[in-house]
Every structure is written in C-alpha cells, then in structure tokens.
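Why do we care about 3D structure at all? Because function follows from shape, and shape follows, mostly, from sequence. That is the central idea of this module. The next example makes it concrete: a single protein chain, its amino acid sequence, and then its structure expressed as tokens.
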Amino acid sequence: MKFHFSKTFVFFIVAGLFCLSTTAYALGNSNAPFPWKLHQVDEFVDQQIHEKDIREGRVNLKGPEAEQGYSYYLKKAVTAEQKSKIKELEMDKSLGLGEWKREAMRIIGELKMDSPRVTRADAEEIIGKYKDETSIKDAFNLIAGAPDWEGGSGISRSIYFMDDERKEAIYVFSNGVYHVVNDQNGKQTMVPFERDGSLPKPGTTAQPGN
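And the structure:
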C-alpha cells in the first residue's frame, strides 16, 4: 500500500516538529536564550507560511485577531500623536510577531495610565488557583487590564512586565507560567514559582537582543 502526502501536510508536520523541539530545548535547558530568542521561531514559521502562500498564489493572511489589533487601535486613535504612537508600537518587533496590547490600550484611553501591574505575589496566588492558560490570563488581566505584549507565530505567549523598566516579567505559555528577571548586566534568570514544581531550575541566559 502506498501513501501520498501533500506538500501542505508535510510543511505543517515539519514546522510543528521544529516548534516543539525548539520549545522543549528552550524550556528544558537553563542555558538556552529563553525567552528572548523565541522571536526567531516566530520569524521562521511566519517566513515558511509566507513562502507557501506565494507559491500557491494566496495572500498571507494574519488571522482575525491580528487584523483587529493595530487596525482597531488606529481607528480608535483620535489625535495625530496617538496614531503616531500606535504605529511606533506596530513597528516594534523586538519580542517577535505580536502586539503591544497594554500600551496601545493606554494610548487610546481604554486603559488607565496608572493601571497596576501583576506582582509575583499575584502570580503565586493565581497559579495556585488556576491551571489552564485561559483562566490564568483572565485573572492576570483583571489586575493589569491586558498583557504588555501578546503574540507568537511559532510559540504563542503573553508577557506581563512587572515594572516600567521591563527588568522583570511574567511569561504565560500553554505549558506554564515563568518569572523572568534581568540583572544590571542584561543576563536573565528564570525564577520558579513555589507552587509549580514543574518549572525548570533557575539559570542565566543570553543578554537580550543577542
């Protein structure tokens, strides 16, 4: 018996294996450049999809959520200054393919400028109460209003910065929640939560942007 696999099927299998292997490596290796290097996975997957769409003569659609993102904020922006700030956010791809949601909402007035941030104590309590990604993010959003950044073409994630300087952040993935701390030299350390023993041991990673 012979089996015939379409190019589309093979592409998604390869892309899926790449994402899974990259995720496993990043989450399982304390010396991996986690989580700042995840944007490289986004770029790889997005490029593969884009090339596939070109070959098949289709437009590279980003999905309804992405279409509602910055387009929505620009429509809600009233002043030229607001629109300029939204466009600056849209151009910022430093964390990968995603949306600077919290700041965009603050710019258009849908979120107060002095909205509180998620603390480690908040995160400890929330992950002790909830185990699924949706419930955890909903609880975080009740405090912060929205994640600072949300997206990911290869590995979806939501990021809640714990300070305005972005030295500490809570990363929410489908498989867990991570507290990431940057020291004065730019090195990162993952600090496990006491209520989640499945998280990897703390370890320094590469300097952001390297």
